[in-house]
Design a protein that fits this description.
With 326 residues, this protein is α+β, with helices and mostly antiparallel strands. The protein folds into 2 domains: 52-247, Chemotaxis protein chec, CATH 3.40.1550.10; 264-325, SpoA-like (Surface presentation of antigens (SPOA), Roll). It has 8 helices and 10 strands. The strands form 2 sheets. It has a 6-stranded antiparallel beta sheet with strand order 1-5-6-3-2-4. The termini are far apart.
């Protein structure tokens, strides 16, 4: 026989069902909040064409560049100059151009053997600080908005060319490049190296001097780096560094070995005789060697056979011409 529930029992069951639904709703809301925290916004109109691993390689590369270029600028300006890497970003070319001030100090450069061009931009405050320092000042920035004069451009060209050399040095871990300045522009709106919507890699660095600071920006179009992007991986970076270390070690070892002297012997021939034949040997006897006339002879370095050669004469001295390795 079915049990009839009292009103109190019915109310208790309804309360439990309601409490369970509220708990489930709270759990669902918590899961959604957790997913929202993990989600990353993605712009399908401007997809990232360079992976995070490759971006980290670019960060390491330009961090090295910042250190070397800062040291070079310290020597040129005879003052302390620090350069810090701020960011490495993927943006559109139009966004990059809009971020530049006008009038600017913008330099276009070619990257051989890669196709296309890049952009190097200096904030005006940094430019006038360099100019002031090169003329014997304290390196203070001018609060003015004007284009550079011919003399100021000449001074900055020296600094820019040194920067390109340090940039080549930084890239040599990945690829041997030849970077050369191709043009100067004071109005960034006139610079059009790629379509406005094309992806570019923008490297932002901060230059700090005693009396001023400012931003230096390097822009690489993705189309320019497309052929070398596959090499911008952490493993390739490590392998390239290891290779350079191995080459440096080899160079150091060669420098250590070069001053060392050793014995070199040219063995005309060999033969075996008995002790009786040696005892009976007299002037005029002929020993028959294991080499035929005009054949190569052994050249021994230290105690190891290294080369083969032909005996002859060089000037008034006997000599051996190396014909091949052992």
């Amino acid at each position: 026989m079915a049990k009839i529930l009292s009103q109190n029992e019915i109310d208790a069951l309804l309360n439990q069902v309601t409490a369970g639904e509220e708990t489930q709703a709270i759990d669902d809301a918590g899961d959604q909040a957790e997913l929202a925290r993990k989600a990353v916004a993605y712009d399908f109109k401007h997809p990232n064409r360079v992976s995070k691993d490759q971006m980290r390689t670019l960060e390491s590369l330009h961090s090295n560049f910042a250190g070397h270029f800062g040291s070079a600028l310290s020597g040129i300006t005879r003052s302390v100059v620090d350069i810090d890497l701020l960011s490495v970003d993927q943006i559109t070319y139009s966004e990059f151009i809009m971020s530049l001030v006008s009038p600017s100090s913008t330099y276009l450069f070619t990257i051989s053997p890669l196709e296309g061009a890049g952009i190097l931009d200096f904030n005006p405050s940094v430019v006038f600080s360099f100019v002031d320092r090169m003329f014997g000042g304290a390196g203070k920035s001018l609060n003015t908005e004007r284009e550079l004069t011919g003399i100021e451009k000449s001074i900055m060209s020296k600094i820019v060319n040194r920067g390109f050399k340090e940039l080549e040095r930084a890239w040599e871990h990945i690829l041997t490049l030849k970077i050369k300045m191709s043009a100067f522009e004071s109005n960034p709106q006139f610079i059009q190296i790629v379509p406005p919507g094309e992806t570019v890699i923008v490297i932002s660095l901060q230059i700090k001097m005693q009396s001023s600071s400012g931003i230096m920006t390097i822009c690489y179009p993705y189309l320019t780096l497309e052929d070398v992007v596959s090499k911008l991986s952490a493993q390739n970076w490590i392998d390239a560094n290891k290779k350079m270390i191995d080459d440096d070690d080899r160079s150091d070892n060669v420098k250590r070995i070069v001053p060392i002297t050793t014995d070199v012997k040219a063995v005309l021939g060999e033969t075996q005789i008995s002790v009786r034949e040696l005892i009976d040997m007299e002037v005029g006897d002929v020993l028959r060697c294991d080499k035929v006339a005009h054949s190569d002879i052994n050249i021994i370095i230290g105690d190891k056979l290294k080369f083969r050669g032909r005996p002859g004469q060089f000037g008034n001295k006997l000599a051996v011409k190396i014909s091949n390795t052992k």
